[in-house]
Amino acid sequence: MRLNERHLMQLAAVIDAGGVSEGAALLGLSQPAVSRSLAMLEARVGEPLFQKGKRPLQPTALGLQLAGQGRIIIAASRQASDAVQGFLRGTKGQVQVGGVPFFMDAMISRMVAEFQNIEPDVAVHQSYGNLPELSQALESEKIDLGIVPMGLLDVAPGFEFTEILPGRNIVACRMAHPLLRKPRLQTSDLTDFPWVAPLPGSPLLSDLHSILLTIGMSDLTIRYSGGSLMSVINYMAETNALAVLPHSVVFATRKEARITVLPLEIPQPNRSLGILRRAGVQRSQAADRFAAFVTKAFVELKHLIKRHENAVVWGR
Q1: Order of all β-strands in the sheet with 122-128
Q2: Cys-Cys crosslink for 93: which of 63, 77, 190, 286, Cβ 3.0 to 4.6 Å?
Q3: Whether pLDDT at 151 is above 70
Q4: What domains appear along the chain, each with residue ranges and CATH number?
Q5: Model confidence at 110, in pLDDT bands (50, 70, 90)?
Q6: pLDDT attached to residue 249
Q7: For the chain, what is the total number of helices (H) and then of strands (E)?
């Protein structure tokens, strides 16, 4: 036997409100319309839903049981309405974000947590990749946005790029590195120590080659490669190895006091960290809301990073 869900909802409203008129007002319906619905439901099940002659209305055992199902339908309907409204406002749903590993681990993952403290009903799914993989993931709609370092001239047709942080690389080392004690540091001093190689496919690899050209060397001693940000920091904290890292990444780990910046100018990349998205396509409000949150967070972060650079790096 198939019952009309609307009739069950109206039965639940009448019982909960204590009368047909009250239940109709609760649902925004007329009293005659609700009375007809209850009569149709009663005829359908072939049993009375209310005890005859009782005022106020008193439901029968069957009426109570069917009203329970009606409440479930009402609750599900309200949840569906809330989900739609939340999706349209960007306060519910999910965001698929991909990004380069070091930035995601050092900075973006914390921003995800801060964002979800404000928007707890938005789920964020994170993945890793460099520009080629992230561009492909955006094309295939596997991610909503990518956090990547790139030059403005490198933005391919069909994409839009929003800069959130200017590019700035440094040479990183452990806090007690011997080079920090040198009064006059030279780029040639970098050849006296082993290096940590960037992750395969990372733009930091080309930055390392630029340093080699500046020094006038064709090769450096690579002792460690392929590690995550945490493993690179753990390794560097126990050795005299050097690494090319974005200054913002070292800044993000400053409270741990395990690695720092060598006060040495090196060739700088012509690129910025930014949010890469497909242009001219409809995006979820939750993804746009997250992108706006990240962009705003970096506005203040830029000033803090610059202050750190002036005070800690060049103010030694």
Answers
A1: 122-128, 93-99, 145-150, 272-278, 159-166
A2: 286
A3: yes
A4: 5-89 (1.10.10.10), 93-164+272-313 (3.40.190.10), 169-261 (3.40.190.10)
A5: very high
A6: 93
A7: 11, 10
